[in-house]
Design brief:
Elements lengths: L1 E7 L7 E7 L6 E11 L1 H7 L10 E2 L4 E8 L11 E4 L9 H5 L9 H5 L10 E3 L2 E2 L12 E5 L3 E4 L5 H4 L5 H13 L6 E5 L5 H11 L3 E5 L5 H7 L4 E3 L8 H9 L11 E4 L4 H9 L7 E4 L14 H4 L3 E4 L7 H13 L9 E5 L4 H9 L5 E5 L1
Parallel strand pairs: 11-12, 11-14, 12-13, 14-15, 15-16, 17-18
Antiparallel strand pairs: 1-2, 1-4, 2-7, 3-5, 3-9, 3-18, 5-6, 6-10, 7-8
Helix pairs in contact: 5-6
Bound molecules: nicotinamide-adenine-dinucleotide, ligand AHE and zinc ion.
């Protein structure tokens, strides 16, 4: 069938809004009418050519919400009419990773997903007879997409698509990094580097768990007001700090008898490897944990003196906030619907698919927190 899509024809070029062809769902798959999709920095990372796994031409997008319109043979957990959020981290519940209960990184379909293909090794999307690659197993920059059954979370029907699509990546990643990955305790001191669509959700996660000190760090001064809106207690613009940033941050966290200083938890939400080092080194000696959320370009590597780890600092990473999508995403939707977490103010811009490139321009200019395309 014909569907409308924003196609990434090649790296570094704006998306092309056009009609593409989508084949129906095969066994174990379903078709979803996407009602809304957020634009995450990771879409821009891949479109820019910085992603070592990036494939072109492809239908990008991984932060969607929509309605199941067709199911293939053997699909049992969802039916036509169900409201769903696509999952770039699926949850099969049977692979060794899912069964380990130690990770959310389901491995059931990761190999084909990384090749831009459905689990049977083929693509459902094509343009003028030539296959287009899927992206992160979701391809939400199309008004219809096909997904494996294990890659959707069924959600309640009263949840607004144009808001809960953000739970498909940004909200879950930020809040999950706090709750699942770092397991931050009440009273903790935390530093969040990068106050964009992810960092602000880390901040609201820290507020949710009762962190006492929440320092936000961003080179964009407009982010001070944004951070404070969600619970940040202190703001630091590295460009306004005289001398090294790390000792400055460590000093801020010194309190009472503890004159060593350093945060209990730090979060990198920039994807910049220099910032990742600062985040680790701003942790408290003996126990501070630094969580890497940002994704870094092909070829980039992190570095620090091993002494930083010898003296008890811990470097950890997180994908999708450690969330098991089919289990956790419906609960996060409930938290939003019950008013426990905020989403609406972070969605600063909405646009039709025809204007999706404007969403990328707003991100580049640092003017948006989240842009959402409404189909
Ligand atoms: P964004 O563009 O909305 O925000 C990035 C923020 O970082 C901006 O406010 C920017 O001003 C700030 N920044 C840039 N350089 C900085 C520096 N040197 N020091 C301090 N602040 C700086 O991006 P986003 O959507 O919030 O995504 C953030 C990162 O997280 C990206 O790398 C994205 O690809 C990644 N991400 C990872 C996951 C995951 O599962 N691990 C999920 C979603 C996004
Ligand atoms: N393909 C990149 C890495 C991209 C990456 O790490 N993606 C995150 C999600 S970012 C969402 O906005 C992720 O889920 N990672 C786990 C995985 O299995 O991809 C690269 O560097 O190769
Ligand atoms: Zn994302």
């Amino acid at each position: 069938m014909d569907v409308r899509a924003a196609v990434a024809l090649e790296a570094g070029k704006p998306l092309e809004i056009t009609t593409v062809q989508l084949d129906g769902p095969q066994a174990g798959e379903l078709m979803v009418e996407i009602k809304a999709t957020g634009i995450c920095h990771t879409d821009e990372f891949t479109l820019s050519g910085a992603d070592p796994e990036g494939l072109f031409p492809a239908v990008l997008g991984h932060e969607g919400a929509g309605v199941v319109v067709d199911v293939g043979p053997g699909v049992t957990s969802v039916k036509k009419g169900d409201h769903v959020i696509p999952l770039y981290t699926p949850e099969c519940r049977t692979c060794p990773s899912c069964l380990s209960q130690k990770t959310n990184l389901c491995t059931a379909i990761r190999a084909t997903q990384g090749q831009g293909l459905m689990p049977d090794g083929s693509s459902r999307f094509s343009l003028e007879g030539k296959p287009l690659f899927h992206y992160m197993g979701t391809s939400t920059f199309a008004n219809y997409t096909v997904l494996p059954e294990i890659a959707v979370a069924k959600i309640r029907e009263d949840a607004p698509f144009d808001k809960v699509c953000y739970i498909g990546c940004g909200v879950t990643t930020g809040i999950g990094a706090v709750i699942n990955t770092a397991q931050v305790e009440p009273g903790a001191k935390a530093i969040v580097f990068g106050l964009g669509g992810i960092g602000l959700n880390v901040i609201q996660g820290l507020r949710l768990v009762g962190a006492e000190m929440i320092i936000g760090v961003d080179i964009n001064p407009t982010k001070k007001e944004w951070g404070e809106r969600f619970g940040m207690t202190h703001f630091v613009n590295p460009n306004e700090v005289e001398g090294d940033l790390v000792p400055y941050l460590v000093d801020m966290t010194k309190k009472g008898a503890d004159q060593i200083g350093g945060a209990d938890y730090t979060f990198d939400c920039t994807g910049n490897v220099t910032v990742m080092r600062q985040a680790l080194e701003a942790c408290h000696r003996g126990w501070g944990q630094s969580i890497i959320i940002g994704v870094a370009p092909a070829g980039a590597e992190i570095a620090t003196r091993p002494f930083q780890l010898v003296t008890g600092r811990v470097w950890k990473g997180t994908a999708f906030g450690g969330a098991r999508g089919r289990t956790d995403v419906p609960r996060i939707v409930d938290w939003y619907m019950d008013g426990r977490i905020e989403i609406d103010p972070m969605i600063t811009h909405t646009m039709p698919l025809t204007e999706i490139n404007k969403g990328f321009d707003l991100m580049h200019a640092g003017e948006s927190i989240r842009s959402v395309v409404m189909y």
